[in-house]
Amino acid sequence: MRSHILGNIELDETPLSRDLEYLSAVPRGEEGYDEFSNGYWKNVPLWNASGDSGDDLYRDTDSPAQLTEHGKNTGYLRGLVEKVFDTDRITMVRARNLVDAVVIPHRDFVELDRDAEQYFRVLMFLEDNPAAFHSNDDTVINMRPGEVWFLDAGSVHAAANFSSDPRQMLCVDFAFDGEYEESDIFRDPAHYRPSTDARVIDRPPLPAERRAAIGDLGKVVDRSNFKEFLFFLSKVHFRFDVPAEATYDWLTEIAASSGDRVLVDKAAELREYAIGARELSERFSINSWN
Amino acid sequence: MRSHILGNIELDETPLSRDLEYLSAVPRGEEGYDEFSNGYWKNVPLWNASGDSGDDLYRDTDSPAQLTEHGKNTGYLRGLVEKVFDTDRITMVRARNLVDAVVIPHRDFVELDRDAEQYFRVLMFLEDNPAAFHSNDDTVINMRPGEVWFLDAGSVHAAANFSSDPRQMLCVDFAFDGEYEESDIFRDPAHYRPSTDARVIDRPPLPAERRAAIGDLGKVVDRSNFKEFLFFLSKVHFRFDVPAEATYDWLTEIAASSGDRVLVDKAAELREYAIGARELSERFSINSWN
């Protein structure tokens, strides 16, 4: 199932801006999945499995999730979530921010117990940012504030914010046992209003000269700068019409032409970790060579 | 005056490891100079102008500096600093960590009131890390724990840690009015034992093919990935025998061959900001294009 708009929520700017201010001031902790991103990435749990504000690892849990201290301190968002969504089905709610950064193409939920289809992730931008994108397979979108998006997190996806401006959003995770309709995430089915009126980014084909120059990066890539090239490659599909997954094809190609066997292995491991099958809490270090 | 070893302090591992553990657990705040680095960079003020634990901006101050909460919680380091250095001359003491990251070549103190020679910065590694380097003009060094280094922060310098292991260190800043001897930083002149026995890194010349490939990066650089190429270029001099400043020559060159006038301007501004004359607290954003 592809990512799409499930509904559209009217946001009340005044109380929302107070919550956004609070969330901006929460100090950023060490992120559980730091190696997937460069730049500034912050996850603030509002509801989670433990109710502990410092616990930001998504894991399988029996719903309903527990409200955290941060959830209690963002009253408008709490009310919004409780009014719009079926909180009995919620496993986690996070406020997320990504600034001047890219999250490399990856798949989620591959490490968990249930089939990926039993997990349902919803994203909603809380502020407009025309330089902030999500990708999903062969589509790149810019979400409008209030749009409730189903993100197919089990398929290859990525995110980027090419600006230094924030783009705070809500990430709401649901889990189901057995069959369900996507409208089941809403408390009131009237909120379920799927739409195809999305800001899809029109991307030109990747020019042949640029494609060749990407291949030539094998002449400068080495262990000391592998990460920079990974982030560089992860950004290409946001601008040109290539699938997100091509990131790993190019990485494999430049690792091979570098002549360093350790880079070849790292590229293969990274592809497997990011878009293959990784274990829960298994840590992968992009930049460790032992 | 070039960077050199001023003395050598015997570190007591057991109480030191307790302080290092405390410092590791201090949450990383938003760094005042975030745009100079990628990866993980943390500055924990132990002494500063205000005594406020959250205040990490270096600024001119009448010595002596105030002990912060973090300084009080790291008793071994506090005792060490008070025993070894003339605390009346200290303006700031920070515990710093840099992991899997590079700090781009820059000059410090250019924005302050006194002549750069009136500022005296001392670095001391608190743990061994063979993948952690400092550069200063045409020299790259790996500091041994306990070595007290004068760092010529007014000249072009950079730092990198190519590993995922920490390299915690102390950064002690002194300020003087008028003439002084470098031995004046020590409480007991017996600690002043300059040495040339440093771990200087032997770097091969930059191969012509790699130099040419760096120039070719103009074919792929654009506003969306300028930062990755800046960090890539900043790392080259740690491995090959070129001056740190060459980073900005290459950046200028690839910006010019990209054909994007905005990149050309950004490269010029960045060079001026990093190694020219910037204003105190002037914020420069590498990745803002307005």
TrEMBL record, chains A, B:
Residue ranges of every copy of the Aspartyl/asparaginy/proline hydroxylase domain listed in the record: 28-174
Please list the GO terms describing molecular function: 2-oxoglutarate-dependent dioxygenase activity
Write down the species: Streptomyces chumphonensis
Query: What is the protein name stated in its UniProt record?
Result: Aspartyl/asparaginyl beta-hydroxylase domain-containing protein
Task: Note the Pfam families from the entry.
Answer: Asp_Arg_Hydrox (PF05118), Pro_3_hydrox_C (PF05373)
Q: Per its UniProt entry, which superkingdom is the organism in?
A: Bacteria
Q: Which residues form the L-proline 3-hydroxylase C-terminal domain?
A: 184-282
